[in-house]
Amino acid sequence: MFTTALQWSSTSEEVARVAYAGSQLAQAPTTARNFKLGAVIVTMGNRPVQFKALLDSVRAQVGPPLEVVVVGNGTALPGLPEDVQGIELPENLGLLAGRNVGLAVLRGRRDIDAVLHLDDDGLLPDPHSAEKLRAAFMADPSLGIIGFRIADETGVSQRRHVPRLRAGDPMRASEVTTFLGGGNAIRMDVVEETGDWPAEFYWAHEETDVAWRALDRGWRIAYRPDILLQHPRTSPSRHPVYYRMTARNRVWLARRHLPIPLVPLYLGAWALITILRRPPLAGLRDWMAGFLEGWRSPCGLRRPMRWRTVWRMTRLGRPPIV
Prior knowledge:
This protein is α/β, with parallel strands linked by helices. Helix content is 39%, strand content 18%. It contains 10 helices and 9 strands. Strand 2 (37-43), helix 2 and strand 3 (67-73) form a beta-alpha-beta unit. The radius of gyration is 19 Å and the shape is globular.
């Protein structure tokens, strides 16, 4: 184990689809095995059983072993296998800052082609997931990000985990305009072009920030339901900061990335959606406080997307107004 302390402030339809994906993988060129994958897992040390299961599932992937970096976010790490690098941060810097620490290690190795980001309570039950990722990236040089299907232990995917507006069929693969932060793979070329995770977001909508940057540079994003991250069924509102950060970060997204005419449309649409969802009164107050915070606080570098990116997202079924 290498540990470093850093001082940084199923239905028949499902079976048929998976079988089809498997046949496509079998036809993939053997050079896909030369495509090297890394993985970053950030943990706070409060899910030891799930974390061990995830790590075992990553190390059990068929094909060349993944370069795995585990970041202890303000926690000491348990004993890790010799082929896993551990980094212990003296304080919890937040999920996204933790990911950036692990990502910096993999970027420094220069031979990693794409990196997986995995929630520490997730699981890769299919040992061929890494092979599918290699084949997909090798087959399409324009493919920058692959989002996994997230489902609980019964195989059910929550609607919010399908990254498109038409979310009724989680088993339908498609090109999309965003992805899920807890289970994805990002090509290193995308990281080099677009930069790190937005650590200032801390939590919520960071995936959309990364996705919009990648789309504006011409990269494609794919949702692959045959690549599964098993994850306990949860509700985002379990987090005390859910309503405030959801609102604040949406304002930041608009200020950072949208052409001026789309800013009121995007924020107005989400304000209406929030009201229609009828949050508790305390949640609505937090949402309003976050909305104001988003306007009053620095949002980072503004680099509005091009209108052709807006049109491309619209053709993909999700214009950047909702």
